[in-house]
Amino acid sequence: MKIAQIAPLAESVPPLLYGGTERIVSYLTEELVRQGHDVTLFASGDSRTSAELVPITEKALRLNPRVVDPIPYHMMLLEEVRRRADEFDALHFHIDLLHHPMTQDFAGRTITTLHGRLDLPDLPPFYRTFADNSLVSISDHQRLPMPPVNWAGTVYHGLPAGLLSPRFQVEDGYLAFLGRISPEKRPDRAIRIAARSGMPLRIAAKVDAVDRAYWESDIAPLIEQYPNVRFIGEINEAQKADFLGRASALLFPIDWPEPFGLVMIEAMACATPTIAFRCGSVPEVIDHGVSGFIVESEDEAVAAVADLPKLDRAIVRAAFDARFTAERMAADYVALYHDLPGARTDAARLRRERGEGAGLQVVA
């Protein structure tokens, strides 16, 4: 198939540091190319890909101090996609909602993966207006706040199988917190859990400008109280395997409806179990007692730390291989592309003539 992947412009594809959506777009794009598809990636000019790259901006908007408003650049992105839309059998958007008014003439060849939270009050009226557009959720839980829409499927994220090497034996391990310093990620819980369990905690996280006050008022002073806590800062992809692989467990003490939680499968790929609070997608990603522990309180999390020796790290990695590879993710998306009502493929036409493909749900 000839497929367009349309990425956000905030980060490069893949991102240099933090950036979950752009990272998934990269993994998907590269795997589709590997599987023999003709892929065009619309993204920032500093992106790196084996697909045809259509650079919209010179570099990622977050890294350009001259950029004040990202909207004009995304309008430029949409105009370029509109201009070339007729070239593609399927167009896959990863930019939430900006494109929906523009794509109505070729909506039958588009799908949109929603990467963020959907429990925001301004979203239901928008999606009621564009209820026929094909949408993809990244967990079943993510869908719950939405009005009736055209869900094409749920496709869980995946990573290249060889991206993160597993470490099956860990000596003198620590607890790891990886991601972003923000109230909903609850690094304060991670600090208290580590302190109560007597384990060192290493925090590898970015601090966005919007969360700077929370960092300064709540988290930095808490770190100073506990000598077992080490703040590393933001790390890149090359550092991630070592950081997660040497950890006894990843702490994922979230307090919000997490749509997916990429870091959980990154830890799983490293054979590192996750101790996660029961929120959002967590029960869909973590197999309790197999790839980690699902808890509902700090007391349960402390108890789970003590139970970590009961888990077999080889089985943790096996859970990743069975459910969360980029190969499986790409295959799930290709199935959706073929079943789009306007997809220009013989396979899709034959399925439609046979009355197949309606209401398809793709899950890992």
TrEMBL record:
InterPro entries in UniProt: Glyco_trans_1, Glyco_trans_4-like_N
Keyword tags: Transferase
CDD domains in alphabetical order: GT4_AviGT4-like
Any one GO MF annotation of this record: glycosyltransferase activity
Highest taxon, organism lineage: Bacteria
Matches recorded under Gene3D superfamilies: Glycogen Phosphorylase B (3.40.50.2000)
Domain Glycosyl transferase family per the UniProt entry, residue ranges: 170-307
Pfam family, one: Glyco_transf_4
Glycosyltransferase subfamily 4-like N-terminal domain boundaries: 18-124
Name this polypeptide is given: Glycosyl transferase
